[in-house]
Design goal:
By secondary structure, the chain is an alpha/beta fold. Helices cover 30% and strands 20% of the residues. The chain folds into two domains: 334 residues, FAD/NAD(P)-binding domain, CATH 3.50.50; 111 residues, Alpha-Beta Plaits (2-Layer Sandwich), CATH 3.30.70. It is built from 13 helices and 21 strands. Strands 1, 2, 3, 7, 8, 9, 10 and 21 form an eight-stranded mixed sheet that branches. It has a four-stranded antiparallel sheet with strand order 14-15-13-17, covered by helices on one side. A three-stranded antiparallel sheet has the order 4-6-5. Helix 1 packs parallel to helix 4, helix 7 packs across helix 8 and helix 12 packs across helix 13. The structure holds flavin-adenine dinucleotide (FAD). The site of flavin-adenine dinucleotide has 37 residues, from helix 1, strand 4, strand 8 and helix 12. Flavin-adenine dinucleotide binds next to helix 1, strand 4, strand 8 and helix 12.
């Protein structure tokens, strides 16, 4: 890299501006650190905006696996909301979007004010928002906190000095640049920086290597919600399996799903297609694989609209494709090897940690080939809430590098609740707050005073006491 330009140093550099990165950068900056957020897309929000999934789950606990809800004919309103699982910056972001008239919820589904029967499509704890409002409001929140944002900036390397990361390399239209950093927070989802710096990671399931399917989410508009509601009220399957079966029979050579999971968005007549856009066998850390997934997803979206929805879905004869995501939805890739993994056993046994820095309110929902293993076997998160230990954020052997979001070390099925967006916000907030404390105390992340960190998080409205 002959022409690398060095830019000014930052106290904290956050790589990736998804739910985890937004919260990490906001927390670090609110704690007085000069903070840079590097994001490869042209907006913050990650999977929830560029990935077209404006559907933050996990604000409360008490949800049950969607397949059970459907099997039992329940709607999200039948589920209790025993307690709030996430506060802090997540709640702040949610309230700001609501104040901008851009969001519905939490625990209320879009369009159900007029069409209550659409309840049967929901998960029960979601906050749904208008993507454009979300992008703007989240950007405003970061700017107000004092974060410097650089869009179109992909982190491509890390300069390692012993157990420290001296800074990161990123590339954008201005070329390859180097930014020195006091602390680095990896919120790329894929543990890119941890990997680039040469700290250990692993991909997918620790034993089998399997990674949950990726999606190119689509939104379809101009659907009559009343017709969908009538279909559901008549007791029909909210996964639309018989419609799909018929469409596949009629169009055997076409790439069509065998079921659909659709969610009403905030705009009347608009539905997000989540289940029905997923494909197994792709790798979110492989550029060619992501290109292939994106192209396949786009063809799938065309088939969904032009064949499945227009001809089989009630109220959708004149529907149109509103958008496909501008980048693929990736559920699972690399995880860090940390100081202490959050394990499946922790969730099944309800482990209490001394260094809990966030809670996850959702159940096991990670798909593997053939279903959701733990949910299908009736296994439940013991306490109905999961404690996330600080040590799961700490790449083994690293001094000034920490991870947040779906790349923390949550093994196997434990990733299900840990990767939910509200939880990613909460873990990001903890990482950003810890970065400020680490720099103030001039100690490695692993030596941050955890009691002081917990006290600070509580003071700022975070939920950490299970
Ligand atoms: C199809 C699908 C459906 C889901 N459904 C839901 C749901 O309904 N509700 C829910 O709460 N959760 C859902 N999830 C899970 C949730 O969306 C993710 O686990 C969560 O978004 C992870 O947050 P994150 O901040 O770790 O990563 P991401 O949201 O992936 O954000 C990572 C950010 O980092 C950026 N980035 C990546 N690499 C680099 C780099 N090298 N340099 C600079 N920037 C980089 C990306 O552009 C992105 O903005 C779903 C996930 C998928 C894929």
């Amino acid at each position: 890299m002959d022409k690398v330009k060095q830019i000014q140093a930052y106290d904290v550099v956050v790589a990736g501006g998804g739910p985890a990165g937004i919260a990490a950068a906001t927390a670090a900056a609110r704690h007085g650190q000069k903070t840079l957020l590097l994001e490869v897309n042209g907006c913050v929000g990650g999977t929830s905006t560029a990935g077209a999934l404006p559907f933050w789950l996990g604000y409360t606990n008490g949800s049950i696996p969607f397949p059970w809800m459907i099997k039992e004919g329940r709607s999200y309103k039948d589920c209790p909301h025993p307690r709030k699982a996430v506060g802090g910056i997540f709640e702040d972001a949610m309230n700001r979007i609501k104040a901008a008239q851009g969001g519905v919820g939490p625990c209320v589904l879009g369009q159900t004010d007029k069409y209550p029967g659409l309840d049967r499509l929901g998960c029960h704890d979601e906050f749904t928002f208008d993507i454009e409002t979300g992008k703007r409001v989240l950007e405003e929140m970061l700017t107000e906190a004092g974060v410097t944002l650089r869009y179109y900036a992909r982190v491509i390397g890390a300069r390692r000095e012993g157990d420290k990361v001296a800074g990161v390399y990123f590339a954008d239209k201005s070329g390859v640049q180097y930014v020195p950093a006091g602390a680095v927070i990896d919120c790329t989802g894929d543990a890119d920086v941890v990997d680039q710096a040469g700290f250990e990671t692993y991909k997918g399931d620790k034993v089998t290597g399997e990674m949950t399917g990726c999606s190119l989410v689509a939104h379809i508009e101009n659907i009559d919600p009343g017709a969908v509601e009538a279909y559901l009220n008549a007791g029909n399957d909210p996964w639309f399996r018989s419609l799909c079966e018929q469409a596949i029979k009629d169009h055997p050579d076409m790439d069509l799903p065998d079921s659909l999971i659709i969610f009403p968005m905030v705009q009347e007549g608009v539905f997000m297609v989540n289940g029905g856009t997923s494909f197994g066998g792709y790798d979110g850390t492989d550029g060619e694989s992501m290109t292939a997934l994106t192209m396949r997803g786009r063809q799938r979206a065309k088939n969904l609209v032009e064949v499945l929805f227009r001809n089989y879905m009630p109220g959708a004869a004149n529907c149109r494709l509103r958008l496909t995501a501008s980048y693929p939805g990736v559920r699972e890739t690399r995880r860090i090897i940390s100081e202490r993994a959050l394990t499946e056993a922790d969730l099944l046994n309800g482990t209490n940690f001394e260094d809990t820095i966030a809670l996850a309110g959702r159940h096991f929902d990670l798909h593997r080939e053939g279903g959701q293993p733990f949910a299908d076997q009736g296994k439940r998160v013991r306490k109905g809430i999961t404690e996330i230990p600080y040590r799961a954020l700490l790449p083994k052997g690293a001094d000034n590098l920490i991870a947040a979001g779906r790349c923390i070390e949550a093994e196997g099925q434990a990733l299900g609740p840990a990767r939910i967006m509200s939880t990613c916000f909460a873990v990001g907030e903890a990482a950003g707050t810890a970065a400020a404390m680490k720099l103030r105390s001039d100690c490695p992340f692993r030596d941050v005073n955890v009691s002081a960190l917990q006290a600070d998080l509580r003071e700022n409205g975070a939920e950490i006491d299970a």
